[in-house]
Write a structure and sequence with these properties.
Elements: H1 8-33, H2 40-52, E1 60-66, E2 70-76, E3 86-95, E4 101-108, E5 111-112, H3 115-122, H4 125-130, H5 146-149
Antiparallel strand pairs: 1-2, 2-3, 3-4, 4-5
């Protein structure tokens, strides 16, 4: 027995379903291959790291830990002596009575940064949070080898 002929709208349903499957596959491919990004907490803390480093183009982020109140970044960089030290930067955030988010304190290797530096940096934090140009791209750890993480 032969199947009944397709109704005119049934072909459109099949074509629409096929296009939906192709579209969903394309979105999943894009979503899996785009670079991972951190939150504004990571971006603000990374900006502080770049401002405090003499040669910011040599910064190598090895680990990032984020929570609702802080961002912790493990970095290595080349200093003025050509040595690649490893540092831990922890930026703690607070919310003022007016709702503005500021840096509460910053620790570098468990040593607190001075209040003067924090107050100076807090003048730009609201602008950094609102900015769309802040770099929140996380490194691609998937392709890194242990040799890439080892200091020179």
């Amino acid at each position: 027995m032969l199947p009944a002929p397709l109704k005119p709208y049934a072909a459109l349903i099949y074509i629409g379903g096929f296009l939906a499957v192709i579209g969903a596959g394309a979105y999943l491919y894009y979503d899996m291959n785009r670079p991972a990004t951190g939150s504004w907490r990571y971006g603000v803390c990374r900006t502080f790291v770049e401002l405090e480093t003499r040669y910011p183009h040599t910064i190598n982020v090895t680990q990032v830990v984020e929570d609702a109140r802080y961002a912790e970044i493990y970095v290595s960089f080349i200093n003025a002596h050509g040595v690649r030290p490893t540092r831990v930067y922890k930026c703690n955030y607070k919310q003022t009575e007016t709702g503005q988010i500021l840096v509460d304190d910053i620790y570098v290797d468990f040593d607190r940064i001075s209040d003067e530096k924090i107050d100076l940096f807090n003048k730009m934090v609201p602008f950094l949070i609102e900015s769309k140009d802040i770099d929140t791209t996380l490194p691609n750890w998937e392709g890194m080898s242990i040799e890439a993480l080892r200091p020179d």
